[in-house]
Amino acid sequence: MLHVCDPLQESCCFSLWFQFFEMALSLEEEIRRQRQQMHMTVYAQCISPNGKYLVAGNNYGTIAVFSITASLSAEANKETWKPLVSFKAYDGAIYALVSTEKFLISAGCGDIKGWAWTDVFQKNPKVSWSLSLPASSNFGAFETNALAYSTKDNVLYSGGGDCKVYAWDLESGTKKETLSGHTDYVHCVSLYNQSQQLASSAEDGSVRIWDARTSGEAVHIIEPHKHEECARPQHGKWVGCVSVDAGEEWLVCGGGPSLSLWHLRSLTPTVTFDAPNCCPQVVTFHEDSIISGGSTPFVYHWNINGDPKTKVPCTATRVFSLAVNTESESNKVLCVSGNSSLIDVYTNFGYRAFSLDFC
Amino acid sequence: MQCGLAISSGYHTSLAKMAAPTFDFVNARQTFSESIEEARQNNESDKLKQQSTAVDGSEAEKKVALDQAFRDVMMNLVVKGSGCEHFTALINLSIEAVHLGICSPATPFLLLSDVFESVTINICDKVFKFVEERVDTWKSNVLYTSGKNFLLRMCNDLLRRLSKSQNTVFCGRIQLFLARFFPLDEKSGLNLISQFHLDNVTSYNTEQLDGPLKSEDKDETMEVEEGEMSAGTSPIDYLLYRKFWALQDYFRNPTQCYIKDKWRVFQRNTKAVLGAFSSLKLDDVTASKSQDETPTEKHVFFSKYLTSEKLYDLQLNDASFRRYVLLQFLILFQYLNQHVKFKGAQQVLTDDMSQFIKTTTETVYDLLKETSPRGEEFAKTIQHILSREEHWNTWKNEGCQSYIREKPDATQVQPKPRARKRSLGEELRINAPNKKIDMGSPELTRLWNICPDNLEACRAENRIFIPTLEDYFEDAIEQADPGAMIEQEYKVVNNSNFAWCALRLLARRSPYFFQTITSTQAPVKSVPSYLEMMVTKLAKDMPQTSIEELKTEAVVEENDDLLKGGEEGLEKSNFLLAEEVDAVVARLGENWKTLAVELNFTDEEIGNVQTENLEVKEQARAMMAAWLVKEGEQATRDELSKALLESGLNDIIESVLSDNGKTDL
User: Fold this and answer.
1) Of A312, A266, A306, A278, nearest to A290 (Cα)?
2) Cβ–Cβ of A330/B209 closer than 8 Å?
3) N or C end of chain A, less CB within 10 A?
4) Where are the alpha helices (DSSP H) in A210-343?
5) What PANTHER family does the annotation carry (chain A) (predicted)?
């Protein structure tokens, strides 16, 4: 067949070769994709303003949008648990995501980027605006680890590798304040509900409480590793997560030191939540309980008095992000992500119902 | 029903007319009806009897007519819509009539079923109260045999009529009545071949629900119209919901588990459900609080599950719901594990299946234990109940043998032990001459008859287990010798086993044992030192006894016990020596005949000796020789001297026998 010199045959041969080449390429692509999936970590999640979508960002700089409504519906199957749309947003990892009424804001290595929800829903995401950090290290831009958005005055707070917390006026797109004082990189930023204050926790082992209106020194400094109740020298002094309750009476933080509840007025630790071998990475107040996750494959639910409520197993062996959908009652789920491409969804917060697949 | 009554009465009429043309059935029925009516109002059954005898006709004919009259009256009452006390009064009357023998025993039951078939459930309820009260009447001999089938049919009809969800109490009353009415081993209510109630289908929402989002829509654009969803409904985990309710089908029909594919689905669903249960810990605090508030909380009971998906989240958080489901698992596993006679040959568990069942059962029990309130107790109770269920199952496997022990059996069993008791002594007496005693079983008999005389058997030589002092202490004595140069710690006296045996032996065999205890010496400090002391004492005794032993070996063998501490050489004198016999012969002379008489020689023998030997001396010698031969070992000095004494030959005793010292005389 081959030595028949027919031009048509020849072109056929070429196309076969081409197909083979393409196949080899796609195979390589597939292997790469699977390997990436194996080593994927989902650091950040946020819920869309209407409460119907979950947005997640991973360590490869990809943002994926999942439909919570579809995945909860009766005819849900493996396909509906895959992202509706996913797009490459960063070269490096994405560490923080927040949503505002109009924008999805992402942060990681490099600029803070805003994506209009309307574009995202139309599966045509594009960067609406971006904010660049003022300083840069010798090895490129500093990373941003945490974001917090204040709806009242439309201000975004960010904290990261340069040990500073910035306040950005989203109206004008300018940097309003710089809150400096931390001596190591910032892990987490948490806003107060009513008053213009915010708390940040950092690798230096301190939680600093700032008055957001001025750029002065921190108002208070909490150092959990200096308190016997919660100090765990074997795990270090870093504080990985901080959260303030809606009544602005309690603050919960943890990391190297065990998770502890602080009375804000007296700045004293009241109870510690004892989860052995778990360094909390994320904590949040939900209704009358505290939900935390960290270096163990469990999501912990605590009563405010320190009693453990439950310990619910999850897929990821390290938990980095918890997202409770408070926007919509019918979609009120808890989403848990960590060092796995699967994002666990808890309908009843007591057991894992299913997992969304970040592929 | 009235129609039915009319037809049956018509049938009876024609039957009666054909069978007995002389008997005026219609008339009799009419008169009976009137008299029943009368008797019912006055409550007099005797009148009815008189009436019945007044009418001509055979007994059977009159019975049929009266039965029919009763049913007519009942029909009238029902048509008139009378109260239940009228019904019961009539039935009572019919019962009396049965006892008087004027109507057939089935009549009261026919009347009852007529009533139950033609009145409303409310009145049935009241009439049934009457039935319950008269359970003893129905069980009486006259009524039971003819009535039991009627009653059973009546009750089953009634049960079929009642609603299973509305009339649960009435249904239960009927069941209880049946249980009281029928004997324990009545099998009519038994699920003999272990069938499943397959109609009990639990339906749930398997439909593709109208999700708030159609999948087609969202592929185009993700923009969603607001307000489409009703606010306030919490999210539903449809996946688990379906898996969960799909399990109910396995509980309904467990044989499905033996089908490979279905088992795989079952296994997957079970894992998902139990995983959710174990992950979702129920709130202990609220449970214990409610327990404190209402310790005797009224238990709610549902005969069916509510399967709405909207309730599912609440159900997952409900302790009693969880218990129901976990118990269902246990019951299913119990069935799968059990040997049930009616299982098919292919319905066998594979190894994987049994392994799964085993581990899952453990998980289920663990879950039950942590389900408050009082989970531990609940789990234990369930375990107990399920073990009882096993008995029930084996009973059914054995073909439902009667629980009631039959009477002849009981009478047979009782006299048996009595008869045996009486015969035991007799048997001994009967068998005594044969020296063979029947012990009941051949082996026991053989063992017993090895040596029937127990005391003799005990005295047998091979039953002497106690060693002699010398044998036992041989080693200890050797070691006690300083010349042996044995270290203190290696001596046998330090061995506790040796010491214990030694003490026991000393107590039995040695005179020193008690001496030391009563002596005024200081008490011994330790057993080894005491033993050592004893050993030295024994060693001192030892040489003498061993020498004497050599001398009197034969004697020792014969009378071992006498030898101990006794006078040696006593027995020696009992032996006649040849010289003594010669001396006696020499002195006997003519007197040998008198001695021979004393030595139990007969006249004939004496005559023989005389004829064989000529000389007197020879004769005496021959006689003594014969005596020695005849008596053998019994020919002792004592015997001889006794005989000499008897024959008045005291001088010979003195001159010959007393020379050698002691005699007993």
Assistant:
1) A306
2) no
3) N
4) none
5) THO COMPLEX SUBUNIT 6 HOMOLOG
Considering only residues B397 and B513, tell me which one the structure prediction assigns the higher pLDDT. B397
Name the pTM for this structure: 0.59
**Predicted local distance difference test score (pLDDT) of residue B423:** 57
Q: Look at phi and psi of residue A157 and say left if phi exceeds 0, alpha if psi is from -120 to 50, else beta.
A: beta
Any B CB within 8 A of A45 CB: no
CB pairs under 8 A between A and B: 109
Please state which of the ranges A41-45, A106-110, B175-179, B195-199 shows the lowest mean pLDDT: B195-199
User: What per-residue confidence (pLDDT) applies to A41?
Assistant: 93
Task: Give dist(CA A259, CA A104) in Å, integer.
Answer: 30
Look at B232 and A330 and tell me if their CB atoms are within 8 Å.
Answer: yes
Nearest CA in chain B to A307: B285
Predicted pLDDT at B56: 73
In angstroms, rounded to a whole number, what is the distance separating the alpha carbons of residues B244 and A133?
Answer: 52
d(CA B15, CA B29): 14
Q: CA torsion, points B90, B96, B101, B106, in degrees to nearest 10? A: 50
Taking only the tens place, the pLDDT of each residue in B72-128 is: 888 888 888 888 888 888 888 888 888 888 888 888 888 888 888 888 888 888 888
Tokens of B441: 């079983």
DSSP conformation letters of A58-114 = ETTSEEEEEEHHHHHSTT--TGGGS-SEEEE--SS-EEEEEE-SSEEEEEEBS-EEE
- What is the C-alpha to C-alpha distance for residues A271 and A260, in angstroms, rounded to an integer? 6
Interface test with B, best of A348, A352, A355 (most B CBs within 10 A): A348
DSSP three-state, residue A336: strand
Give phi and psi for A243, each to the nearest 5. -155, 145
Q: Which of A127, A129, A201 is nearest to A163 (CA)?
A: A201
- Contact (Cβ atoms closer than 8 angstroms) between residue B25 and residue B16: yes
- In this predicted model, what pLDDT tens digit does every residue of A74-91 receive, in sequence order? 777 888 889 999 999 998
Structure tokens at B41: 């109002």
Question: In whole angstroms, what is the distance from residue B651 CA to residue B665 CA?
Answer: 14
Please say if the pLDDT value at position B526 is more than 90.
no
Tell me if chain B has a CB within 8 Å of the CB of A326.
no
Identify the DSSP state of A142: P
Residue with token string 């107040």: A285
Mutate to test the interface with A, among B279, B281, B283 (most CBs of A within 10 A): B279
Find out whether B289 and B295 touch, Cβ atoms under 8 Å: no
Tokens of B529: 């030192």
Contact B622, B612 (CB under 8 A): yes
Provide, as residue numbers in chain B, all residues whose Cβ is less than 8 Å from the Cβ of A84: 218, 222
Q: Which amino acid is at B577?
A: L
CA distance B275 to B278: 5
A211-219 contacts: CB < 8 A, separation 24 or more? A212/A150, A212/A155, A212/A157, A212/A167, A212/A177, A212/A179, A214/A177, A215/A177, A215/A178, A215/A179, A217/A181, A218/A179, A218/A181
How would you classify residue A8: left for phi > 0, otherwise alpha for psi between -120 and 50, otherwise beta? alpha
pLDDT tens for A275-284 read 888 999 999 9
Helix (H) or strand (E) run with residue A168 in it: strand A164-169
Tokens of B295: 């310790």
- The tally of CA atoms less than 13 A away on the side-chain side of residue A63 is 30
Distance from CA of residue A6 to its chain's centroid?
A: 60
One-letter amino acid of B558:
E
pLDDT of B550-602, one tens digit each? 444 444 444 444 444 444 444 445 677 777 778 878 888 778 888 888 888 88
